Amino acid sequence: MVSDLVHLDVQDNPALAGEVDRLLARRTRDIRLNGEIQRLFRDRIWSQTAKIIRARMVWVALLDVLTLALNMLMLPGAVADSMLLPGAILPPVAVAVVLLWRKPQAPWIQGASLIAGMFLILLSIALVGVSAGGEFYERHLNIMLFVAITAIIIFGIPLAWTVAIAALSLGLYLAFQLQNPAIGFGNAVAATLFFASGIFATVAARRIMTILAQKTFLFELRDRRRVAELAKANDRLELLAKTDPLTGIANRRWMTETLDHLWGSDKRCLDGAAMLMCDIDHFKKLNDHLGHAEGDRCLVEVASIIQENVRRDRDQVARYGGEEFLVLLPAVNEEEAVAVAERIRKGVEDAGLPNPGSRVSRHVTLSIGVAVQASEEATSPEQLQRQADAALYLAKQIGRNRVLLHRAESSARKPIRSTR
């Protein structure tokens, strides 16, 4: 879901897409996410980061409880009792962090809860050793630093949060070491500096890991955008391949694929479907007398008239040849199909487009052959098209500018219906 939203944000925001390209053009170490891209990255990794933080807190709490229980069994009573109260701080703090990280919150709430939670956990570990004293003093301070370092390594959080956790752990370590009766001031400072070098190296490594994750995210955004752009380009090419460039309607290829699809998947098309084969009368003479530019304008006008007289949500119109148009009318009877054809023929005639070379009229006219599939028959689209073409051929023979309905061979004695 998040990746889909990221994809949409980049696709709908050219400025954001440009920023992604600019960031990727930089050296890896110079990548800095800001503004919207930073928000998108945070949203992208939040779920994984939250799971890691919650799991880490649960394990720390369980280990703390287990350690306190073992101390009660194995250590002298006075020592174990001194560890109990400071050790009891850790579990509820860990549980509180887990609850706060169950759902996305404002960044400042997430950061404050994690930093405060880590501080209290580290303080609890340190106080356990300080309260017990002796060998436990130094040991628990080292355990505290270990907990801090592992958190820095596995928590994929902003650098400022990481630095805050590192600084708090070193501050606690130095403060308690300065009060350690077993070592002097110089040793406390030296030990703190030693561990500081390791912690800051860990912070630097964590920063590199974060930058690499951000760069991977930027690559993902760029690749998604490019894939989407390529898909759009392919869709445009596919549309162009199925569209007649002159009239803007479907071409023969598209109509053939549509017929195959409808007859193969939509059985409703078998329950009464009609095809109209429309041909402009004496179109060659129009080109000869007025030129091909006027002929092209005529084709565009006729295509527009045909589309205006069919049901745009159901019927299909395609330029099938030079001056031929094929119309598919799903779920109609003979009367309805002939009515649509007559409406188209009359619309072309009434348009008054000039055709001085025509033997039928001084204006452009249309001859239309109609074939209707009976509901009890299972006619293929090729057969239906041949029937419409045969009706068109007869319409041309007997005078043009008319609509003819094809009749089945079994009804050959019946007159072919003609409409003028």
Count of extended strands = 7
pLDDT averaged over residues? 88
Secondary structural class: alpha/beta
- Amount of beta strand: 5-15%
Sketch the major β-sheet. 7 strands, mixed
User: Could you say which overall geometry the principal axes of the C-alpha atoms support?
Assistant: rod-shaped
Q: Count the helices. How many? A: 14
Strand order of the largest sheet: 1-3-4-2-5-6-7
Elements, N to C (H/E): HHHHHHHHHEHEHHEEHEHEE
- The low-confidence parts are 1-8, 410-420
Assembly state: single chain
Number of domains: 2
Our Rg estimate from Cα atoms comes to 40 Å
How many angstroms does the end-to-end distance come to?
60 Å
Question: Helix fraction?
Answer: 55-70%
What does this structure look like?
The protein has 420 residues and is α/β, with parallel strands linked by helices. The chain has 2 domains: 2-227, no CATH class; 250-419, Alpha-Beta Plaits (2-Layer Sandwich), CATH 3.30.70.270. Helices cover 67% and strands 8% of the residues. It has 14 helices and 7 strands. α7 (135-154) runs antiparallel to α8. The longest helix is centred in the middle third of the chain and has 57 residues, at 185-241. The two termini are 60 Å apart. 30% of the residues are buried. Mean pLDDT is 88; it is low at 1-8 and 410-420.
